[in-house]
Amino acid sequence: MSVVRKGTERTARWITCLAAAALLALPAAALADPFFTLKTTVTVPGNALTSFDISWVDPELHAYLLSDRSNKAVDVINTFTKAATNLAAGKFAGVVSAEPHYSCPPNSCNGPNGVLSFFNRASGKHEVWAGDGPTINCLGRQTLATATTACSTVKVIDFDTGAILHTIPTAGQFRADELCYDAADHLIQIANDSEVPFPYISYIPTEGPNAYKVVKQIQFDGGGAGHGPPATNGIEQCKWNPRDGLIYLNIPEVNGDGNDVAPGWTVLIDPKTMQIVNHFVIPLDQCAGPQGMAIGPFPEILLGCNAKGPPPLPAGCDPTSTCTGGSGAQNTVVIDERNGNVIKTLAGQGGNDEVWFNPGNGLYFLAEGSNAVAVQLGIASSFPFIATLQDVVVANVSVGHAHSVAADPFSGEVYFPIPSNLDGTGNTIANPCGANASQGCVAIYGSQFPQFSQWSH
User: Fold this and answer.
1) Exposed/middle/buried for 252, CB within 10 Å: 0-12, 13-18, 19+?
2) pLDDT of the residue at 140
3) CA triplet 326, 372, 233: central angle to 5 degrees?
4) Is the pTM above the cut of 0.85?
5) Of 160, 185, 393, 400, which one's alpha carbon is 20 to 30 angstroms from that of 142?
6) The domain 6-21+59-309+328-393 belongs to what CATH superfamily?
7) How far is it, in rounded angstroms, from Cα 84 to Cα 86?
8) Domains of the chain, residue spans
Protein backbone atom coordinates (compact mmCIF):
# COMPACT_ATOMS: atom_id res chain seq x y z
CA MET A 1 0.00 0.00 0.00
CA SER A 2 1.30 3.46 -0.82
CA VAL A 3 2.58 5.71 1.93
CA VAL A 4 0.59 8.86 2.68
CA ARG A 5 2.84 11.87 2.47
CA LYS A 6 2.41 14.05 5.57
CA GLY A 7 3.50 17.15 3.73
CA THR A 8 0.63 16.76 1.30
CA GLU A 9 -1.78 16.30 4.23
CA ARG A 10 -0.67 19.65 5.60
CA THR A 11 -1.08 21.17 2.14
CA ALA A 12 -4.58 19.74 1.86
CA ARG A 13 -5.52 21.15 5.28
CA TRP A 14 -4.12 24.56 4.28
CA ILE A 15 -6.09 24.53 1.04
CA THR A 16 -9.25 23.57 2.93
CA CYS A 17 -8.80 26.41 5.42
CA LEU A 18 -8.11 28.87 2.61
CA ALA A 19 -11.21 27.86 0.70
CA ALA A 20 -13.36 27.99 3.84
CA ALA A 21 -12.12 31.48 4.72
CA ALA A 22 -12.83 32.71 1.18
CA LEU A 23 -16.35 31.36 1.11
CA LEU A 24 -17.28 32.46 4.61
CA ALA A 25 -16.00 35.96 3.90
CA LEU A 26 -18.17 36.29 0.82
CA PRO A 27 -21.27 38.52 1.24
CA ALA A 28 -24.44 36.46 1.64
CA ALA A 29 -25.96 37.83 -1.57
CA ALA A 30 -22.86 37.16 -3.62
CA LEU A 31 -23.47 33.46 -4.17
CA ALA A 32 -26.62 34.34 -6.08
CA ASP A 33 -24.85 36.97 -8.16
CA PRO A 34 -22.70 36.39 -11.26
CA PHE A 35 -19.33 36.89 -9.63
CA PHE A 36 -17.14 35.50 -12.46
CA THR A 37 -17.24 37.75 -15.49
CA LEU A 38 -15.37 37.94 -18.78
CA LYS A 39 -12.10 39.85 -18.34
CA THR A 40 -10.54 39.48 -21.77
CA THR A 41 -10.15 37.16 -24.73
CA VAL A 42 -7.05 35.94 -26.54
CA THR A 43 -7.00 34.90 -30.18
CA VAL A 44 -4.35 32.28 -30.87
CA PRO A 45 -2.08 32.70 -33.91
CA GLY A 46 -2.73 30.76 -37.09
CA ASN A 47 -5.84 28.91 -38.22
CA ALA A 48 -9.25 29.38 -36.66
CA LEU A 49 -9.59 27.50 -33.39
CA THR A 50 -12.04 24.86 -34.58
CA SER A 51 -10.67 21.74 -32.89
CA PHE A 52 -8.79 21.49 -29.61
CA ASP A 53 -8.57 19.23 -26.60
CA ILE A 54 -7.20 19.44 -23.05
CA SER A 55 -5.64 22.52 -21.45
CA TRP A 56 -3.28 23.10 -18.54
CA VAL A 57 -1.96 25.94 -16.38
CA ASP A 58 1.64 25.80 -15.19
CA PRO A 59 1.95 28.50 -12.48
CA GLU A 60 5.74 28.16 -12.35
CA LEU A 61 6.01 29.03 -16.03
CA HIS A 62 3.14 31.54 -15.88
CA ALA A 63 1.75 29.70 -18.87
CA TYR A 64 -1.59 28.41 -20.05
CA LEU A 65 -1.25 25.49 -22.50
CA LEU A 66 -3.89 24.30 -24.97
CA SER A 67 -3.82 21.29 -27.28
CA ASP A 68 -4.66 22.99 -30.57
CA ARG A 69 -5.42 20.52 -33.35
CA SER A 70 -6.39 23.27 -35.78
CA ASN A 71 -2.79 24.51 -35.78
CA LYS A 72 -1.12 21.15 -35.03
CA ALA A 73 0.46 22.83 -32.00
CA VAL A 74 0.36 23.43 -28.27
CA ASP A 75 -0.80 27.02 -27.80
CA VAL A 76 0.85 29.01 -25.02
CA ILE A 77 -0.68 32.09 -23.39
CA ASN A 78 1.46 34.04 -20.94
CA THR A 79 -0.75 34.40 -17.86
CA PHE A 80 0.75 37.85 -17.11
CA THR A 81 0.89 39.54 -20.50
CA LYS A 82 -1.70 37.38 -22.31
CA ALA A 83 0.66 37.11 -25.30
CA ALA A 84 -0.05 33.97 -27.34
CA THR A 85 2.32 31.73 -29.30
CA ASN A 86 2.23 28.30 -30.95
CA LEU A 87 4.61 25.69 -29.51
CA ALA A 88 5.92 23.00 -31.92
CA ALA A 89 3.52 24.21 -34.61
CA GLY A 90 2.98 21.72 -37.44
CA LYS A 91 4.54 18.84 -35.48
CA PHE A 92 1.28 17.08 -34.58
CA ALA A 93 -1.32 15.09 -36.50
CA GLY A 94 -3.89 17.89 -36.37
CA VAL A 95 -7.53 17.27 -37.31
CA VAL A 96 -7.86 13.90 -39.04
CA SER A 97 -11.16 13.04 -40.68
CA ALA A 98 -12.41 9.51 -41.20
CA GLU A 99 -10.43 9.27 -44.41
CA PRO A 100 -10.06 5.90 -46.17
CA HIS A 101 -6.26 5.95 -46.13
CA TYR A 102 -6.28 6.45 -42.38
CA SER A 103 -9.28 4.21 -41.62
CA CYS A 104 -9.85 6.40 -38.58
CA PRO A 105 -13.18 6.70 -36.80
CA PRO A 106 -14.00 10.36 -35.99
CA ASN A 107 -11.61 11.93 -33.46
CA SER A 108 -9.55 8.74 -33.17
CA CYS A 109 -6.43 10.00 -34.97
CA ASN A 110 -6.31 13.67 -33.95
CA GLY A 111 -3.47 15.36 -32.12
CA PRO A 112 -2.38 16.94 -29.89
CA ASN A 113 -4.74 15.63 -27.21
CA GLY A 114 -3.90 15.43 -23.52
CA VAL A 115 -1.23 17.91 -22.39
CA LEU A 116 0.69 18.76 -19.21
CA SER A 117 4.02 20.27 -18.17
CA PHE A 118 6.54 20.03 -15.33
CA PHE A 119 10.20 20.69 -14.58
CA ASN A 120 12.16 17.49 -15.14
CA ARG A 121 15.09 17.50 -12.74
CA ALA A 122 16.82 14.76 -14.76
CA SER A 123 16.82 16.68 -18.04
CA GLY A 124 17.04 20.10 -16.41
CA LYS A 125 14.24 21.31 -18.71
CA HIS A 126 10.67 22.44 -18.43
CA GLU A 127 9.00 19.69 -20.46
CA VAL A 128 5.59 19.72 -22.15
CA TRP A 129 4.12 16.26 -22.76
CA ALA A 130 1.29 15.77 -25.27
CA GLY A 131 -0.47 12.75 -26.75
CA ASP A 132 -0.59 12.58 -30.55
CA GLY A 133 -2.22 10.62 -33.36
CA PRO A 134 -0.77 8.71 -36.32
CA THR A 135 0.50 10.19 -39.56
CA ILE A 136 0.08 6.99 -41.61
CA ASN A 137 -2.40 4.12 -41.79
CA CYS A 138 -1.52 2.08 -38.72
CA LEU A 139 -4.18 -0.61 -38.89
CA GLY A 140 -3.01 -3.84 -37.34
CA ARG A 141 -1.81 -3.43 -33.75
CA GLN A 142 1.91 -3.14 -33.36
CA THR A 143 3.92 -4.47 -30.47
CA LEU A 144 6.18 -2.29 -28.37
CA ALA A 145 9.15 -3.96 -30.06
CA THR A 146 7.91 -2.99 -33.53
CA ALA A 147 6.22 0.32 -32.67
CA THR A 148 6.88 3.22 -35.00
CA THR A 149 6.82 6.95 -34.37
CA ALA A 150 4.50 7.34 -37.36
CA CYS A 151 1.64 5.81 -35.34
CA SER A 152 0.37 6.82 -31.89
CA THR A 153 2.98 8.71 -29.87
CA VAL A 154 3.69 10.93 -26.93
CA LYS A 155 5.71 14.03 -27.78
CA VAL A 156 8.00 15.71 -25.25
CA ILE A 157 8.72 19.38 -25.99
CA ASP A 158 11.28 21.76 -24.54
CA PHE A 159 9.10 24.64 -23.35
CA ASP A 160 11.89 27.20 -23.68
CA THR A 161 12.94 26.36 -27.25
CA GLY A 162 9.94 24.58 -28.75
CA ALA A 163 12.15 21.69 -29.85
CA ILE A 164 10.71 18.19 -29.71
CA LEU A 165 13.03 16.31 -27.37
CA HIS A 166 11.43 12.86 -27.65
CA THR A 167 8.78 11.13 -29.74
CA ILE A 168 7.68 8.04 -27.82
CA PRO A 169 5.65 5.34 -29.64
CA THR A 170 2.82 3.71 -27.71
CA ALA A 171 2.17 0.91 -30.26
CA GLY A 172 -1.35 2.01 -31.12
CA GLN A 173 -3.31 2.22 -34.34
CA PHE A 174 -5.01 5.39 -33.19
CA ARG A 175 -4.24 8.38 -30.97
CA ALA A 176 -2.53 8.59 -27.60
CA ASP A 177 -4.89 10.74 -25.58
CA GLU A 178 -5.28 11.71 -21.89
CA LEU A 179 -2.29 11.59 -19.55
CA CYS A 180 -1.21 12.41 -16.00
CA TYR A 181 2.08 12.77 -14.13
CA ASP A 182 3.10 11.11 -10.87
CA ALA A 183 5.61 13.58 -9.40
CA ALA A 184 6.74 11.20 -6.64
CA ASP A 185 7.55 8.22 -8.85
CA HIS A 186 8.47 10.31 -11.91
CA LEU A 187 6.03 8.46 -14.12
CA ILE A 188 3.64 9.34 -16.95
CA GLN A 189 0.43 7.37 -17.49
CA ILE A 190 -1.27 7.83 -20.88
CA ALA A 191 -4.27 6.19 -22.54
CA ASN A 192 -4.78 4.92 -26.06
CA ASP A 193 -8.49 5.47 -25.68
CA SER A 194 -9.72 4.60 -29.17
CA GLU A 195 -8.00 1.26 -29.73
CA VAL A 196 -10.01 -1.71 -30.98
CA PRO A 197 -11.24 -4.03 -29.74
CA PHE A 198 -10.30 -2.47 -26.37
CA PRO A 199 -8.21 0.49 -25.17
CA TYR A 200 -5.14 0.40 -22.94
CA ILE A 201 -2.84 2.58 -20.85
CA SER A 202 0.95 2.92 -20.96
CA TYR A 203 3.58 3.86 -18.36
CA ILE A 204 6.61 5.98 -19.23
CA PRO A 205 9.31 6.92 -16.68
CA THR A 206 10.55 10.49 -16.94
CA GLU A 207 14.00 9.74 -15.54
CA GLY A 208 16.31 6.79 -14.91
CA PRO A 209 17.55 4.05 -17.26
CA ASN A 210 14.12 3.59 -18.91
CA ALA A 211 13.29 7.27 -19.30
CA TYR A 212 11.11 8.16 -22.30
CA LYS A 213 10.24 4.50 -23.00
CA VAL A 214 7.02 2.60 -22.45
CA VAL A 215 7.82 0.06 -19.73
CA LYS A 216 4.37 -1.47 -19.17
CA GLN A 217 0.83 -1.46 -20.52
CA ILE A 218 -2.52 -2.47 -19.04
CA GLN A 219 -5.23 -3.72 -21.38
CA PHE A 220 -8.80 -2.74 -20.51
CA ASP A 221 -10.43 -5.81 -22.04
CA GLY A 222 -11.72 -7.72 -19.00
CA GLY A 223 -9.03 -10.31 -19.58
CA GLY A 224 -8.51 -11.33 -15.96
CA ALA A 225 -5.57 -10.82 -13.62
CA GLY A 226 -3.40 -7.88 -14.62
CA HIS A 227 -6.06 -6.50 -16.98
CA GLY A 228 -8.60 -3.76 -16.53
CA PRO A 229 -12.38 -4.13 -16.95
CA PRO A 230 -13.87 -4.10 -20.46
CA ALA A 231 -13.86 -0.38 -21.31
CA THR A 232 -16.57 -0.20 -23.95
CA ASN A 233 -16.52 3.58 -24.44
CA GLY A 234 -12.86 4.47 -24.16
CA ILE A 235 -10.66 5.72 -21.33
CA GLU A 236 -10.73 9.25 -19.98
CA GLN A 237 -8.90 11.49 -17.49
CA CYS A 238 -6.42 10.23 -14.91
CA LYS A 239 -4.98 12.08 -11.92
CA TRP A 240 -2.19 11.28 -9.48
CA ASN A 241 -3.38 11.81 -5.92
CA PRO A 242 -0.46 13.00 -3.72
CA ARG A 243 -2.42 12.17 -0.57
CA ASP A 244 -2.30 8.40 -1.06
CA GLY A 245 0.22 8.07 -3.91
CA LEU A 246 -2.30 6.35 -6.21
CA ILE A 247 -3.39 7.17 -9.76
CA TYR A 248 -7.15 7.47 -10.25
CA LEU A 249 -8.50 6.78 -13.75
CA ASN A 250 -11.99 7.29 -15.21
CA ILE A 251 -13.56 4.57 -17.37
CA PRO A 252 -16.79 6.09 -18.78
CA GLU A 253 -18.53 2.77 -19.33
CA VAL A 254 -17.78 -0.82 -18.34
CA ASN A 255 -19.28 -3.70 -20.30
CA GLY A 256 -21.90 -1.63 -22.10
CA ASP A 257 -22.85 -0.85 -25.68
CA GLY A 258 -20.59 2.17 -26.17
CA ASN A 259 -23.14 4.87 -25.33
CA ASP A 260 -22.55 5.25 -21.58
CA VAL A 261 -25.67 3.22 -20.77
CA ALA A 262 -23.78 1.04 -18.28
CA PRO A 263 -22.07 2.40 -15.13
CA GLY A 264 -18.57 3.78 -15.39
CA TRP A 265 -15.74 3.01 -12.99
CA THR A 266 -12.99 4.97 -11.33
CA VAL A 267 -9.99 2.63 -11.25
CA LEU A 268 -7.20 2.99 -8.67
CA ILE A 269 -3.66 2.09 -9.72
CA ASP A 270 -0.49 1.80 -7.65
CA PRO A 271 2.19 3.47 -9.80
CA LYS A 272 4.99 1.70 -7.95
CA THR A 273 3.78 -1.69 -9.18
CA MET A 274 1.77 -0.35 -12.14
CA GLN A 275 -1.12 -2.57 -11.11
CA ILE A 276 -4.82 -1.97 -10.49
CA VAL A 277 -5.47 -2.19 -6.75
CA ASN A 278 -9.12 -1.13 -6.45
CA HIS A 279 -12.07 0.34 -8.29
CA PHE A 280 -15.23 2.33 -7.57
CA VAL A 281 -18.44 1.69 -9.51
CA ILE A 282 -20.00 5.11 -10.17
CA PRO A 283 -23.82 5.23 -9.85
CA LEU A 284 -25.25 5.61 -13.34
CA ASP A 285 -28.24 7.71 -12.25
CA GLN A 286 -25.94 10.27 -10.61
CA CYS A 287 -23.00 10.23 -13.03
CA ALA A 288 -23.25 8.73 -16.50
CA GLY A 289 -20.01 8.67 -18.46
CA PRO A 290 -17.37 9.92 -15.99
CA GLN A 291 -14.73 11.74 -18.07
CA GLY A 292 -12.98 14.67 -16.39
CA MET A 293 -11.36 14.45 -12.96
CA ALA A 294 -10.11 16.98 -10.42
CA ILE A 295 -8.49 16.22 -7.06
CA GLY A 296 -10.06 18.58 -4.53
CA PRO A 297 -9.46 19.01 -0.80
CA PHE A 298 -9.48 15.78 1.24
CA PRO A 299 -11.36 13.55 0.63
CA GLU A 300 -12.97 15.05 -2.46
CA ILE A 301 -12.53 14.02 -6.09
CA LEU A 302 -14.76 15.73 -8.64
CA LEU A 303 -15.79 13.57 -11.59
CA GLY A 304 -16.83 15.47 -14.71
CA CYS A 305 -19.73 13.36 -15.98
CA ASN A 306 -20.70 13.65 -19.62
CA ALA A 307 -23.81 11.69 -20.51
CA LYS A 308 -27.47 11.63 -19.46
CA GLY A 309 -28.50 9.10 -16.86
CA PRO A 310 -31.19 6.46 -17.36
CA PRO A 311 -34.64 7.90 -18.08
CA PRO A 312 -37.04 8.08 -15.15
CA LEU A 313 -40.13 5.92 -15.41
CA PRO A 314 -43.50 7.68 -15.59
CA ALA A 315 -45.65 7.55 -12.47
CA GLY A 316 -47.41 4.22 -12.12
CA CYS A 317 -45.30 2.57 -14.82
CA ASP A 318 -44.47 -1.09 -14.31
CA PRO A 319 -40.65 -1.39 -14.74
CA THR A 320 -41.14 -4.84 -16.34
CA SER A 321 -43.37 -3.42 -19.08
CA THR A 322 -42.36 -1.69 -22.30
CA CYS A 323 -43.30 1.81 -21.15
CA THR A 324 -40.47 4.31 -21.25
CA GLY A 325 -39.63 7.56 -19.52
CA GLY A 326 -38.16 10.83 -20.64
CA SER A 327 -34.52 11.87 -20.79
CA GLY A 328 -32.50 11.15 -17.69
CA ALA A 329 -30.70 13.70 -15.56
CA GLN A 330 -27.32 15.03 -16.71
CA ASN A 331 -25.46 15.47 -13.43
CA THR A 332 -21.92 15.35 -12.08
CA VAL A 333 -20.60 14.15 -8.73
CA VAL A 334 -17.96 14.56 -6.05
CA ILE A 335 -16.83 11.22 -4.64
CA ASP A 336 -14.92 10.19 -1.52
CA GLU A 337 -11.42 8.99 -2.43
CA ARG A 338 -11.47 6.49 0.46
CA ASN A 339 -14.43 4.41 -0.67
CA GLY A 340 -15.93 5.87 -3.84
CA ASN A 341 -19.14 6.96 -2.14
CA VAL A 342 -20.88 9.96 -3.67
CA ILE A 343 -20.43 12.93 -1.32
CA LYS A 344 -22.46 15.33 -3.45
CA THR A 345 -24.41 15.25 -6.71
CA LEU A 346 -24.32 18.52 -8.64
CA ALA A 347 -27.65 18.44 -10.44
CA GLY A 348 -27.68 19.58 -14.05
CA GLN A 349 -23.91 20.05 -14.17
CA GLY A 350 -23.21 17.23 -16.64
CA GLY A 351 -21.92 17.34 -20.20
CA ASN A 352 -18.32 17.67 -19.03
CA ASP A 353 -15.03 16.73 -20.52
CA GLU A 354 -12.24 18.52 -18.64
CA VAL A 355 -12.78 19.73 -15.06
CA TRP A 356 -10.32 21.61 -12.84
CA PHE A 357 -9.73 22.35 -9.15
CA ASN A 358 -8.08 25.64 -8.21
CA PRO A 359 -6.36 25.32 -4.79
CA GLY A 360 -5.88 29.08 -4.73
CA ASN A 361 -9.56 29.74 -4.08
CA GLY A 362 -11.04 26.29 -3.42
CA LEU A 363 -13.29 26.30 -6.50
CA TYR A 364 -14.07 23.64 -9.07
CA PHE A 365 -14.48 24.61 -12.74
CA LEU A 366 -16.41 22.44 -15.19
CA ALA A 367 -16.26 22.64 -19.00
CA GLU A 368 -19.82 21.62 -19.84
CA GLY A 369 -19.50 21.59 -23.61
CA SER A 370 -22.07 18.82 -24.03
CA ASN A 371 -24.61 20.00 -21.49
CA ALA A 372 -28.08 19.49 -22.94
CA VAL A 373 -29.42 22.78 -21.58
CA ALA A 374 -26.56 25.14 -22.48
CA VAL A 375 -22.88 25.23 -23.30
CA GLN A 376 -21.46 26.62 -20.09
CA LEU A 377 -18.63 26.99 -17.62
CA GLY A 378 -19.81 25.60 -14.31
CA ILE A 379 -18.35 26.94 -11.06
CA ALA A 380 -18.73 25.07 -7.77
CA SER A 381 -17.39 25.42 -4.25
CA SER A 382 -15.46 22.64 -2.52
CA PHE A 383 -15.64 23.83 1.11
CA PRO A 384 -17.28 24.41 3.58
CA PHE A 385 -20.05 23.06 1.34
CA ILE A 386 -20.06 21.52 -2.11
CA ALA A 387 -22.51 23.43 -4.29
CA THR A 388 -22.91 24.98 -7.71
CA LEU A 389 -22.22 28.70 -7.43
CA GLN A 390 -22.58 29.91 -10.98
CA ASP A 391 -23.12 28.84 -14.59
CA VAL A 392 -21.41 31.05 -17.16
CA VAL A 393 -23.51 30.33 -20.26
CA VAL A 394 -21.74 30.87 -23.58
CA ALA A 395 -24.36 29.36 -25.92
CA ASN A 396 -27.84 27.86 -25.63
CA VAL A 397 -27.34 25.84 -28.82
CA SER A 398 -24.05 24.75 -30.32
CA VAL A 399 -22.35 22.84 -33.08
CA GLY A 400 -18.96 23.44 -31.47
CA HIS A 401 -17.54 21.81 -28.38
CA ALA A 402 -16.26 24.02 -25.55
CA HIS A 403 -14.90 21.19 -23.44
CA SER A 404 -11.60 22.42 -21.96
CA VAL A 405 -10.83 24.49 -18.86
CA ALA A 406 -7.92 25.39 -16.57
CA ALA A 407 -7.36 27.99 -13.84
CA ASP A 408 -4.39 29.97 -12.58
CA PRO A 409 -4.01 29.53 -8.79
CA PHE A 410 -2.28 32.90 -8.38
CA SER A 411 -4.55 35.26 -10.31
CA GLY A 412 -7.70 33.15 -9.95
CA GLU A 413 -8.35 33.61 -13.67
CA VAL A 414 -10.10 30.83 -15.55
CA TYR A 415 -9.20 29.94 -19.15
CA PHE A 416 -12.12 28.61 -21.24
CA PRO A 417 -11.39 28.11 -24.97
CA ILE A 418 -14.26 28.86 -27.33
CA PRO A 419 -14.30 27.09 -30.73
CA SER A 420 -14.79 29.05 -33.93
CA ASN A 421 -17.90 26.97 -34.73
CA LEU A 422 -19.61 27.56 -31.36
CA ASP A 423 -22.71 29.34 -32.62
CA GLY A 424 -25.56 27.26 -33.97
CA THR A 425 -28.87 28.28 -35.48
CA GLY A 426 -31.07 29.79 -32.80
CA ASN A 427 -28.31 30.75 -30.38
CA THR A 428 -29.31 33.90 -28.50
CA ILE A 429 -26.23 34.26 -26.27
CA ALA A 430 -23.53 36.76 -27.21
CA ASN A 431 -20.37 34.93 -28.23
CA PRO A 432 -17.54 35.72 -25.75
CA CYS A 433 -15.10 36.08 -28.66
CA GLY A 434 -17.05 39.07 -29.98
CA ALA A 435 -15.74 40.26 -33.34
CA ASN A 436 -13.36 37.28 -33.41
CA ALA A 437 -16.14 34.70 -33.12
CA SER A 438 -15.31 33.18 -36.52
CA GLN A 439 -11.68 32.74 -35.41
CA GLY A 440 -12.44 31.37 -31.95
CA CYS A 441 -10.62 32.49 -28.82
CA VAL A 442 -9.63 31.64 -25.29
CA ALA A 443 -12.05 33.44 -22.98
CA ILE A 444 -10.55 34.46 -19.63
CA TYR A 445 -12.90 34.92 -16.69
CA GLY A 446 -12.17 36.48 -13.31
CA SER A 447 -14.03 37.17 -10.10
CA GLN A 448 -15.21 40.56 -8.96
CA PHE A 449 -14.57 39.46 -5.37
CA PRO A 450 -10.96 39.53 -4.11
CA GLN A 451 -11.50 36.32 -2.11
CA PHE A 452 -11.61 34.43 -5.42
CA SER A 453 -9.14 36.51 -7.40
CA GLN A 454 -5.75 35.59 -6.02
CA TRP A 455 -3.79 33.13 -3.95
CA SER A 456 -3.66 34.64 -0.47
CA HIS A 457 -0.61 33.80 1.64
Assistant:
1) buried
2) 72
3) 85
4) yes
5) 185
6) YVTN repeat-like/Quinoprotein amine dehydrogenase (2.130.10.10)
7) 7
8) 6-21+59-309+328-393
